[in-house]
Specification:
about 65% helix, disordered N terminus
Length: about 260
């Protein structure tokens, strides 16, 4: 995952990343000693297919987002590797913070794992605008800070753990995607323009790998949209609508591209 040089310049070494990562993992592990496994819905795990939804969403994080981030020709390996690091650290941290904020205790069930992956999606969206610009240490800080803000926004402002949430957002349009996009834009603004953007370009190979990531996101998007919904007509409706929307939007994208790109596809 070695990078020749970040786009913003600076050292190509990892600095205090190693000690910081070990310290964070030690603190998270210590915090999980107070965790309680909520097995009250364990009998419904298979019948509701929540594990299948979790696998789908996890594949979106590791493979979908991971390979989507290879669009820059010089940072493909680092992008895939750091996506894995962000996901692993972020899911742990999000489970911890969101549980305490929303439930007042660290009660973990399968939905907690799913919500942890949803939270990480916001960070990975932000990461898309920062690839090659920030060091692994800065990525660690970004993950912790953004997830703290994400959980606070979800629990306290959008009231997702109350009986009457402020919004119904099963696909995470506002809670996840808009939040991640604007957080990433703010981070880019604070960092400023790159000193040398010669490596800020794609290649045939990077575009190919990025398309592979896009296909994985496309395939498992229905799981992302409907995974947190209770089994029943609502979940089925979300699955059907999402698949139909994906099919139609893909056809329209291919059709519009030559019209907007001087006949090129």
């Amino acid at each position: 995952m070695a990078m020749s040089e970040p786009l913003l310049g600076g050292s190509s070494t990892t600095g205090i990343f190693g000690p910081m990562g070990l310290l964070l993992q030690a603190l998270i592990t210590a915090a999980f000693f107070n965790a309680k496994l909520d097995l009250s819905s364990a009998k419904d795990t298979d019948s509701s297919s929540i594990y299948n939804y979790y696998v789908g969403v996890a594949l979106m994080m590791f493979v979908g987002f991971g390979y989507l981030m290879t669009f820059l020709k010089a940072y493909g390996l680092g992008a895939v590797g750091l996506t894995m690091f962000i996901t692993c650290l972020g899911v742990e941290y999000a489970i911890l913070v969101e549980s305490y904020m929303g439930k007042g205790a660290l009660d973990i069930d399968f939905l907690s794992l799913l919500n942890g992956n949803f939270a990480v999606a916001a960070v990975l969206i932000s990461f898309g605008g920062l690839i090659g610009k920030i060091s692994p240490t800065q990525i660690t800080v970004l993950t912790v800070v953004e997830l703290t803000c994400y959980c606070a926004n979800k629990v306290f402002f959008l009231k997702q753990y109350e009986d009457s949430p402020l919004i119904a957002d099963c696909g995470g349009t506002i809670i996840i995607h808009v939040f991640g996009a604007y957080f990433g834009l703010c981070a880019c603004k604070v960092l400023g323009a790159p000193k040398n953007d010669a490596l800020n370009a794609s290649s045939y190979t990077s575009d190919l790998f990025s398309l592979v990531g896009t296909v994985f996101l496309w395939l498992f998007w229905p799981s992302f949209v409907s995974g947190a919904l209770p089994a029943g007509s609502g979940q089925t409706t979300a699955l059907i609508n999402t698949v139909l929307a994906l099919l139609a939007s893909t056809v329209v994208t291919f059709a519009l591209t030559p019209l907007m790109e001087n006949g090129k596809l």
